[in-house]
């Protein structure tokens, strides 16, 4: 596991391989943005990039609400091979253009080593999805790039397995990792997955890496995204990644869990209130 004791300066502050850790927490820099530390990271955007109009309109809305990162899948790992697979290279070109035009950073999923050279030109952060959390060759490959990685927890992984997956990336020299809890599979069927809120304090104890929460995939239902977001921030998460669509009902994937730009704006304002209570900025 992460050897946080190696070069401790004192109980809470240490220096490890060129990185300073304050309060046992690590900060991940993505261009001029910092994930971890006192400021919460708000990432929002559609499940998948569907068209130029769609991604442009969502980029404008989430920027206006206060988000700093635009998400959107170009390579979609779908359960069925007959479902929409994403716009792939064209999608990455679209999301980068949309993000640049309003000043957002791009987070997008990569599913194969073959995509990395191209994707590296359009993404500020690579996402490794839940289904690929233990795709060790892909983990090693993103580890060889210096681009920050958003590493989602598999719906079937224990926390230690998730941290071991992060270690695969770190072992290649890329320590810029942000963990993302997105729900695990339990016997409960009222929600798509079960949000493991305990993962937040457990990770904060076991690892210096920032942890953000994805309430969209955790719940699978748009109406639960708001309360789970507030709970995550109250429990100490470093940020949220939320699926926002300009017309959720017509979305080509995950239509039940995507929220509208208006709902996102309202959620953002409520997150600010909780952030204030727990001493975080947004
Ligand atoms: C996604 O973020 O669009 C996604 C597919 O999520 P997950 O890998 O958590 O299922
Ligand atoms: Mn999705």
Describe this structure in words.
It is a single chain. With 282 residues, the chain is α/β, with parallel strands linked by helices. It has one domain (26-76, 83-277): TIM Barrel, CATH 3.20.20.70. Helices cover 34% and strands 16% of the residues. The protein has 9 helices and 12 strands. It has helices at residues 52-65, 88-102, 116-119, 136-143, 159-171, 199-206, 215-219, 222-234, 261-277, and strands at residues 14-16, 19-21, 28-30, 33-35, 41-45, 69-71, 105-109, 125-128, 149-152, 177-181, 211-213, 239-243. The chain has an 8-stranded parallel sheet. Strands 1-2 form a two-stranded antiparallel sheet. It has a two-stranded antiparallel ribbon with strand order 3-4. It is globular, with a radius of gyration of 17 Å. Bound molecules: phosphoenolpyruvate and manganese (II) ion. Manganese (II) ion binds next to loops.
Write the layout of secondary structure elements.
Elements: E1 14-16, E2 19-21, E3 28-30, E4 33-35, E5 41-45, H1 52-65, E6 69-71, H2 88-102, E7 105-109, H3 116-119, E8 125-128, H4 136-143, E9 149-152, H5 159-171, E10 177-181, H6 199-206, E11 211-213, H7 215-219, H8 222-234, E12 239-243, H9 261-277
Parallel strand pairs: 5-6, 5-12, 6-7, 7-8, 8-9, 9-10, 10-11
Antiparallel strand pairs: 1-2, 3-4
Helix pairs in contact: 1-2, 1-9, 4-5, 8-9
CATH class: Alpha Beta
Structural class: alpha/beta
Q: Which ions, cofactors or small ligands are bound in this entry?
A: phosphoenolpyruvate, manganese (II) ion
- CATH hierarchy: architecture: Alpha-Beta Barrel
Number of DSSP strand runs: 12
Q: At the third CATH level, what is the topology name?
A: TIM Barrel
Order of helices and strands: EEEEEHEHEHEHEHEHEHHEH
Low-pLDDT segments: 1-5
Span of the ends, CA to CA: 31 Å
Largest sheet: 8 strands, parallel
Whole-number mean pLDDT: 94
Proportion of helical residues:
25-40%
The radius of gyration over CA amounts to 17 Å
Question: Looking across the biggest beta sheet, what order are the strands in?
Answer: 11-10-9-8-7-6-5-12
- Number of self-contained structural domains: 1
Proportion of β residues?
Answer: 15-25%
Quickly count the helices.
9
Mass-distribution shape: globular
Q: Can you say what the CATH homologous superfamily is? A: Aldolase class I
């Amino acid at each position: 596991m992460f050897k946080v004791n190696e070069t401790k300066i004192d109980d809470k502050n240490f220096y490890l391989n060129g990185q300073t850790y304050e309060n046992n927490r690590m900060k991940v820099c993505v261009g001029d943005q910092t994930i971890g530390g006192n400021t919460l990271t708000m990432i929002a955007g559609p499940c998948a990039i569907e068209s130029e109009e769609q991604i442009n309109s969502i980029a404008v809305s989430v920027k206006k609400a206060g988000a700093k990162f635009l998400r959107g899948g170009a390579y979609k790992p779908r359960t069925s091979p007959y479902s929409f697979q994403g716009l792939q290279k064209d999608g990455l070109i679209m999301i980068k253009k949309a993000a640049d035009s309003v000043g957002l950073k791009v987070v997008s999923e990569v599913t194969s080593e073959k995509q990395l050279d191209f994707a590296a030109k359009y993404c500020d952060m690579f996402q490794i999805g839940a289904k690929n959390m233990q795709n060790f060759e892909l983990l090693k490959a993103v580890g060889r790039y210096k681009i920050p990685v958003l590493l989602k927890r598999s719906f079937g992984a224990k926390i230690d397995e998730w941290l071991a997956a992060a270690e695969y990336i770190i072992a290649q020299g890329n320590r810029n990792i942000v963990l993302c809890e997105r729900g695990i599979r339990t016997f409960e069927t009222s929600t798509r997955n079960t949000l493991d809120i305990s993962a937040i304090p457990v990770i904060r104890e076991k690892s210096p890496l920032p942890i953000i929460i994805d309430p969209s995939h955790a719940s699978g239902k748009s109406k639960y995204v708001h309360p789970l977001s507030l709970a995550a921030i109250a429990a100490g998460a470093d940020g949220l990644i939320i699926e926002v669509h300009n017309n959720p009902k017509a979305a080509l994937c995950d239509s039940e869990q995507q929220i509208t730009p208006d709902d996102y704006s309202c959620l953002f304002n409520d997150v600010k209130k909780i952030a204030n209570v727990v001493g975080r900025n947004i």
